[in-house]
Amino acid sequence: xxxxxxxxxxxxxxxxxxxxxxxxxxxxxxxxxxxxxxxxxxxxxxxxxxxxxxxxxxxxxxxxxxxxxxxxxxxxxxxxxxxxxxxxxxxxxxxxxxxxxxxxxxxxxxxx
Length: 112
Prior knowledge:
Elements: H1 4-29, E1 32-37, E2 40-45, E3 51-57, E4 62-67, E5 70-77, E6 82-84, H2 92-104
Antiparallel strand pairs: 1-2, 2-3, 3-4, 4-5, 5-6
């Protein structure tokens, strides 16, 4: 497990990069809105009935995504130099993009 200072630095960096991608995709798609509330990131869908929540969980050194009635827990991967879902090997941006595509039924959604 990485130390707390490294986790905070890497999670802040990863989430900021994802935030910029989500802002760009939000402008392009118009099917969701992105909000950042004190480190908790929310993706709110246009019908207002559902949302994804992304948050760093410092005690366990993971980034958690709550989406589609499932909790995804991403661990730091030194080899990938990113947070990854161990079950699939997907990094944070790739997983978020896949979840958006599945939820919206739109395979063209891209996170730059």
